[in-house]
Amino acid sequence: MYLTKEVKAEIFKKHGGAENNTGSTEGQIALFTHRISHLTGHLKKNRKDFNTERALVKLVGKRRSLLDYLKNKDIERYRSIVKELGLRK
């Protein structure tokens, strides 16, 4: 599923609190997770697409940085977003 304006607004509404709250850490993590899952599916079909692979690695790093920030700032918010998105076991 592509990232349309409506999908992006729905992600931020669900995780960021409001559609226009695009700066919330939880919303950004959810958006990155959506994009990561899309790129992963693309790379399963196109194994030699190295530009997409590089973009995926950069996105994973950005999400990791945001998760580390949230973990240090508010551990309860970190635990809730990880549980919602299913990032850890």
Automatic annotation (TrEMBL):
Keywords per UniProt: Ribonucleoprotein, Ribosomal protein, RNA-binding, rRNA-binding
Domain of life: Bacteria
Gene Ontology CC entries for this record: cytosolic small ribosomal subunit
CDD domains, alphabetized: Ribosomal_S15p_S13e
PROSITE patterns registered for this protein in UniProt: RIBOSOMAL_S15
Sample GO molecular function, one term: structural constituent of ribosome
One GO process term, biological-process aspect: translation
Entry-linked HAMAP family: Ribosomal_uS15_B (MF_01343_B)
Assembly, per entry: Part of the 30S ribosomal subunit. Forms a bridge to the 50S subunit in the 70S ribosome, contacting the 23S rRNA.
Family: Belongs to the universal ribosomal protein uS15 family.
NCBIfam families associated with the record: S15_bact
Role: One of the primary rRNA binding proteins, it binds directly to 16S rRNA where it helps nucleate assembly of the platform of the 30S subunit by binding and bridging several RNA helices of the 16S rRNA.
Protein name: Small ribosomal subunit protein uS15
Gene name per UniProt: rpsO
